[in-house]
Amino acid sequence: MTAQRFIADHVLPLGSSGIRRVFELAATLDDPIDLSIGQPDFPVPENIKETMCGAIRGDRNSYTPSRGLPALRERIAADLKAEFDWEPDLFVTCGVSGGLLLALMACINPGDEVLIGDPYFVSYKQLVRLVGGVPVLVDLYEDFQARPDRFEAAITDKTKIILLCSPGNPTGVVQSAQSIQAVAELAQRRDLLLISDEIYTKLSYDGPSSSPVRFAPERTLLLRGFGKSHALTGLRLGYAAGPEEIIAQMAKLQQYTFVCAPHPGQVGALEAMDTDVSHQVDRYRAKRDLICAELKGAFDFVRPSGGFYLFPKVPKQYASGNAFVDAAIERNLLIIPGDAFSERDTHFRISYAAPDDRLRQGCEILRDLAAG
Ligand SMILES: Cc1ncc(COP(=O)(O)O)c(C=O)c1O
After folding, report:
1. How many CA atoms lie within 13 A of 173 on its CB side?
2. Would you say the pTM of this structure is higher than 0.90?
3. 57 lies in a domain?
4. Are residues 32 and 99 in the same domain?
5. Domain count along the chain
6. By CB distance 3.0 to 4.6 Å, which of 44, 98, 119, 266 could disulfide with 93?
7. Which of 223, 243, 272 is the last residue before a domain boundary?
């Protein structure tokens, strides 16, 4: 018997992530230099671990309210009030992915269009399709700043949402306050919802990264998470904040899907909010500086200001991002081809969330490949 006929039609067209191909190749290598991973290389801070262990031992393993622990929600609300003088409705999500899925489920009717800057985080296009929407990609090359004229040119009478991500994955580019303001004004003028994925906001190296909350608070749905800033990726914790009507529908959908974010993790998230990670931010800033210095002159790239990624162009002698990545993998170096995040196959992503000696070794191979 084949179970193929049980698979729903809308699932098959979703391609598997281009990152997977690299991970599969990686499994064949012995101790590769791995600059492909999109998560911090430091452990969860000890105090957060202790707090979570205490929560588990103290039998805080039950469901929480679907919207999250009241103390955590209050703390998030206080931080948003302090940061933006903003008092949105909010709830705790299972990572930013959980918030994103529920936001799209709550807002998208079949055929509704969502504008997404290209290059984009791998899930965006697929999640929009999964809920019956149409992803419309708006080119961000060459400097990866969101240009309002390009977004405006992509608007149709089906457009409902602009999905922004800053600092960006895979580029590490932080949108300038002017870009964000211009896109926020466009959303106002054309009556669109802004979804702002700010999972990397704490990892900003050249001053704070801006948010559409500053310019269009009443039409911004903010998604943030604890995974990247506090290395809690596997604990699946984030939050969604925004218009009451949308949050109410998302929270309703959470009851029937995720139910709630993991209870001990929520206790840990509250501790995380009081845990200073500025030394890790300093560490990543230094890694950003290191990798930019190592690759300067050998590659074209936009100097990133956030996250832990660099997105250089492949050298001219390679036919595509994939051809370049294959050559790198032959030298035992793992990086991700740009077409995992883009309609173009002209770039590649490096994650610099790795030890400095590995970064130096990786850069040496990259320089060699560029010179070869
Ligand atoms: C831009 C962006 N958004 C969302 C996510 C997913 O985050 P989470 O693990 O909190 O679901 C990631 C993870 O890599 C990301 O890079």
Report:
1. 25
2. yes
3. no
4. no
5. 2
6. 98
7. 272
